[in-house]
């Protein structure tokens, strides 16, 4: 009987382990939210802070998480939970309607205030950080909401746009934005295009993921190679094939043109 119980227990543990490894969200003790947070923290370490003189908060692309977790729906759900509890902020980056930047709220606040030191917009920006950011996880804000709900004046909204925490979406609405992020987007797009080009120029348009990650960066690739690899895998700009030698990345014809939109 003891042996039978042991076999049942071992089988249960094995099944539970498999469920954990596949990131299935089933209410078990495994904390998938912690996994997503850990993945975000790992991707943050790949962000090149020195490239921007440490003036930008580390930016992670939401789809980079898809390169680490297979269940996109679950990733989206848990990212939204982290946003709703005020831990994470999300931004529409502008070069692609499906490209969303993620920044830890504490990092955003610290870098925004750092950039506002000595500026005449500081008081208004502090008001925005204290009043709007903790209370609202929206990607954009209407004029009506800014005036009536958050009690900002027209001149204060103008100051927020000047400071870079808001950018114009259309007449009467603004995107939440990261001050001075234009350089980041430019470098990111150039790097993506170059790394995709490396895959395309490889024999048969294929390269082992480990080999690509080990390549030295060029003048066109400002970020770490792993940062870009997580991008092109998560955005499905390359096909991933499991081989006995490791993960093979295969160029998908036509995808490199998707990187030209912002730069053209």
- How much is the radius of gyration in Å? 22 Å
Approximate strand percentage:
5-15%
The ordered H/E elements are HHEHEEHHEHHEEHEHHEE
Shape from CA axes? elongated
Give me the oligomer status: single chain
Query: Main β-sheet: number of strands, strand sense, barrel status?
Result: 3 strands, antiparallel
How does the helix and strand content classify structurally? alpha+beta
Q: Considering DSSP H and I runs of 4 or more, what fraction of the residues is helical?
A: 40-55%
End-to-end C-alpha gap: 72 Å
Q: How many distinct beta strands?
A: 9
> How many helices?
10
- Unreliable segments of 5+ consecutive residues: 1-30, 258-264
Please state how the strands of the largest beta sheet are arranged side by side.
1-3-2
User: What is the arithmetic mean of pLDDT?
Assistant: 86
Features:
264 residues; alpha+beta; three-stranded antiparallel beta sheet; 10 helices; 46% helix; disordered N terminus; disordered C terminus
TL;DR?
By secondary structure, the protein is an alpha+beta fold. It contains 10 helices and 9 strands.
Plain-language structure description:
By secondary structure, the protein is of the alpha+beta class. The protein is built from ten helices and nine strands. The protein has helices spanning 2-21, 32-45, 72-84, 105-116, 122-131, 143-149, 154-163, 182-201, 209-213, 225-234, and strands at 60-61, 88-92, 100-104, 140-142, 166-170, 173-176, 206-208, 238-243, 246-251. The longest helix has 20 residues, at 2-21.
């Amino acid at each position: 009987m003891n042996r039978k119980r042991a076999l049942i227990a071992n089988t249960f543990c094995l099944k539970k382990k498999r469920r954990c490894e596949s990131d299935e969200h089933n209410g078990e003790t495994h904390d998938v939210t912690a996994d997503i947070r850990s993945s975000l923290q790992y991707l943050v370490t790949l962000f090149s802070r020195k490239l921007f003189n440490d003036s930008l908060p580390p930016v992670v692309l939401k789809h980079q998480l898809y390169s680490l977790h297979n269940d996109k729906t679950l990733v989206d759900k848990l990212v939204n939970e982290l946003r709703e509890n005020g831990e994470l902020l999300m931004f529409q980056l502008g070069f692609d309607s499906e490209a969303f930047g993620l920044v830890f709220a504490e990092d955003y606040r610290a870098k925004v205030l750092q950039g506002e030191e000595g500026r005449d917009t500081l008081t208004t920006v502090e008001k925005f950080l204290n009043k709007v950011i903790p209370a609202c996880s929206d990607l954009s804000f209407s004029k009506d909401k800014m005036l009536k709900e958050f009690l900002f004046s027209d001149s204060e909204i103008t100051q927020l746009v000047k400071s870079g925490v808001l950018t114009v979406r259309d007449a009467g609405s603004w995107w939440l934005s990261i001050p001075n992020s234009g350089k980041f987007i430019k470098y990111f797009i150039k790097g993506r295009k170059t790394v995709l080009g490396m895959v395309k120029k490889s024999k048969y348009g294929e390269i082992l993921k480990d080999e690509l990650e080990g390549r030295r960066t060029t003048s066109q690739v400002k970020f770490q190679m792993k940062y870009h690899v997580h991008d092109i895998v998560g955005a499905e700009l390359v096909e991933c094939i499991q081989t006995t030698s490791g993960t093979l990345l295969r160029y998908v014809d036509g995808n490199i043109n998707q990187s030209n939109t912002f730069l053209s």
